[in-house]
């Protein structure tokens, strides 16, 4: 019999707990002091799980929240509902304090809300006109947004200050490391000092149109490297210490995301093989022992802060690999996802997921 699946939600003095064992679903609900227990037998485990998931979604949308400060590996520490929003980007960021920041839509006004999530509570940080946020980056208490391919800053009063001009093509970049940012403006990738918004260095780019429908522009930033691609399959590496620039010409249809971890570069491919590849930034060589194909369901690549694990979200699952090789150490299904989720590491052992159906969850994925 498959391992039990247990989810415990609380709202004030009420509890709603679900348990799945084989094809039997058990629901415990009511006052915490005197709950009622009901069991339901189904013809298959999948049928029982679908029934429980529907019940959980309804309860979370009514205000119930799952919070577990000491989850086992593979289990959630947070699960809660937010009003539904634009599902094309699903932005989410994690602060050093453990808070999460994401977006949703105010159901009454249609405005976009920036929401801080802490210990199962959602707090509105700012409200802005509807213009889907593609990415959120945090620098201390400052919030930077990439929305409609423009970069902006939410100031101390909650007002939004635009930092870049509107591009004449649908292309945008926002990467932040320490006190520097990398963004796209006026045909250039610009490395910017965020203390005074001065340009430290810039690189001219001409984003190509892949297949006549999607603009190719991806970039990554670290203290040692600036990496970018404006042409499918072409990766430019700028070594910030030596000032040397090198080019990788890879057999990749279109680059969706690039992530730097030390001297390694992880690249996700859209179209083509829909794979994730790893390159050595010193040599430019592809690690042929580390290639993973995920098909059209590939969404997000994220490396843990300590660089020991890389997580890949695909087909509503979090796949966690050792970076020392290519070993899959854990695969976790994301509850309540329909088509996709965006994931980030919150620390060295947990991952947060912004889920398309209007939920946020955090899972402990490694010891």
Descriptive notes:
The protein is globular and about 65 Å long. It is mainly beta and 367 residues long. The mean pLDDT is 92. It has a five-stranded antiparallel β-sheet with strand order 5-6-35-34-33. A four-stranded antiparallel β-sheet has the order 1-2-3-4, covered by helices on one side. It has one helix spanning 45-61, and strands at residues 5-11, 14-21, 24-31, 36-41, 66-67, 76-81, 92-94, 100-105, 112-118, 121-128, 133-139, 142-147, 150-154, 160-162, 174-177, 180-185, 188-193, 198-204, 208-210, 214-216, 218-221, 225-231, 234-239, 245-249, 254-261, 264-270, 275-280, 286-293, 298-303, 309-314, 317-322, 328-333, 341-345, 350-355, 359-364. It contains one helix and 35 strands. A hairpin with a 5-residue loop joins strand 29 and strand 30.
Question: Averaging pLDDT over every residue, what do you get?
Answer: 92
Strand order of the largest sheet: 5-6-35-34-33
Enumerate how many helices there are, as a single number. Answer: 1
Shape: globular
Strand content: over 45%
**In total, how many beta strands?**
35
Helix content: under 10%
Segments where pLDDT lies below 50 for 5+ residues?
Answer: none
What characterizes the major β-sheet?
Answer: 5 strands, antiparallel
Pairing-aware structural class of the strands and helices?
A: mainly beta
Return Rg in Å. Answer: 21 Å
| Spatial gap, N to C terminus | 25 Å
Summarize the structure.
This protein is 5% helix and 55% strand.
